[in-house]
Amino acid sequence: MPHDFMPGLAGIPAARSAVSDVDGEKGILEYRGIRVEELCDRSSFLETAYLLLFCRLPTKSVLMQWEQDIIHHRRVKYSIIDFMKCLPEQGHPMDALQAAVAALGMFYPGRNVTDVENNYWSAVRLIAKLPTIVAAWARLRHGDDVISPRDDLGFSENFFYMLTETVPHPLWADIFDDCLILHAEHTMNASTFTGLVTASTLADPYTVVASSIGALKGPLHGGANEEVLQMLREIGEPDRVKGYVEERLENKKRLMGFGHRVYKVKDPRAIVLQGLCKKLVSTCGTSQLYNIALQVEHTAAKWLNGKGIYPNVDFYSGIIYDKMNIDVDLFTPIFAMARVTGWLAHWLEQLRENKLFRPDQIYAGEHNLPYVPLDQR
Ligand code: ACO
After folding, report:
1. Cβ(257) – ligand 1 distance below 6 Å
2. Beta carbons of 169 and 270 less than 8 angstroms apart
3. Could you give the CA distance from residue 91 to residue 32 in angstroms, rounded to a whole number?
4. DSSP 8-class letter at 165
5. Is the CB of 264 within 6 Å of ligand 1?
6. What's the 313 CA to ligand 1 centre distance in angstroms?
7. Which of 174, 267, 314, 322 is labelled catalytic?
8. Is the CB of 312 under 6 A from ligand 1?
9. How many Å lie between the centroid of ligand 1 and the Cα of residue 74?
10. Residues 6+ apart with CB under 8 A from 332
11. Can you tell me the distance from the alpha carbon of 343 to that of 340, in angstroms, rounded to the nearest whole number?
12. Is 314 a catalytic residue?
């Protein structure tokens, strides 16, 4: 049956899914039917992760067990740390994360993805170990010792502890946890689709997550948060915003952190993140980058809003991480620490009715050409 080619598969459903839903016209994002704003107000990252993976909010005892299981699996084998020590220290943390996650799979060879219990423990390990790997790399590349996780600390507190050897201010841990909730899942995006293509071959979940990490890295997807910060730093002062934005847009260049394939209004995650930014600066002191960002949004509005282009999730998240003194190139790995839950939720969902991805193509080449011998070309 002939089909029209849709570049980027725009608008073509790739799955039937109950994990999350976006209304791009109204600016609504729900995980398993619950609005993300409500989850940020009332839930934690780990509880939200459970909701995404297992389709319902956990009871008190189930939540306690889930949190304990994650705590128990935070440590990574010393061979993984030794392996990371062999990587070039100037390498990008996303590459180190992808390599370490792929290597992780070699330590857990139970690869029967039809085994429900095995899949539970794979999900636990991946969610628990990604922050440990990200923090370990952040320290190793500066020549610092790796810090082991602390069992008495919550998910976000422990990540800061492993990064800096200090327990963060509770407000920082709360805000960071909300950031993780907001990045945990987002329907059929490029990295989720990549993971599902890999998963459809019945590859193990470490390979699935490693391939999703590769797709998340690109600047048109998760990598945009890094580029936003570089752009805000390049602007440098609020009164240089107008000239910068106008020059870029007049020359048909893109503003990073703006635009989305699905949202035609402001991304609901950007709205929550902007609120978190405001809360952070009002408690911890002003941020020049935040002031510049507000000005960029204001200036870009008259150029872009008419085309349905508004700030997306990447526009304000980097400012929060920057204010928390996190290195810019760790922003996308932090995104991966959260999004691994969405990838795994889609993986588990797809396994119930798996079919190998094998799309079609529209051949645009020639036929019946002769082979020309090397000396006659
Ligand atoms: N700045 C300026 N103009 C833009 C932007 C932007 N950020 N985004 C889209 N446009 C314009 C395009 O130039 C184009 O204009 P034209 O029709 O006059 O040629 C029009 O909007 C449509 O652009 P497309 O690229 O066709 O739209 P698409 O839906 O494919 O774009 C994308 C989505 C890739 C996210 C795009 O908006 C973009 O490149 N944004 C910047 C990168 C970014 O922030 N990525 C993060 C996305 S969120 C995430 O992945 C977590």
Report:
1. yes
2. no
3. 37
4. S
5. no
6. 13
7. 314
8. yes
9. 37
10. 93, 94, 216, 217, 222, 223, 225, 226
11. 5
12. yes
Please check whether residue 45 is in contact with residue 33, taking contact to mean a CB–CB distance below 8 angstroms: no
Look up the pTM and report it: 0.94
Cβ(221) to ligand 1 under 6 A?
A: yes
Binding site membership of 52 for ligand 1 (Cβ less than 6 Å): no
- Could you tell me the distance, in angstroms and rounded to a whole number, from the CA of residue 1 to the centre of ligand 1? 32
Q: What is the pLDDT along the chain (377 residues), one digit of tens a residue?
A: 557 899 999 889 999 999 999 999 999 999 999 999 999 999 999 999 999 999 999 999 999 999 999 999 999 999 999 999 999 999 999 999 999 999 999 999 777 899 999 999 999 999 999 999 999 999 999 999 999 999 999 999 999 999 999 999 999 999 999 999 999 999 999 999 999 999 999 999 999 999 999 999 998 888 888 889 999 999 999 999 999 999 999 999 999 999 998 999 999 999 999 999 999 999 988 889 999 999 999 999 999 999 999 999 999 999 999 999 999 999 999 999 999 999 999 999 999 999 999 999 999 999 999 999 999 99
Q: Which residue is it, tokens 């839950």?
A: 341
Alpha carbon of 20 to ligand 1 centroid (Å)? 22
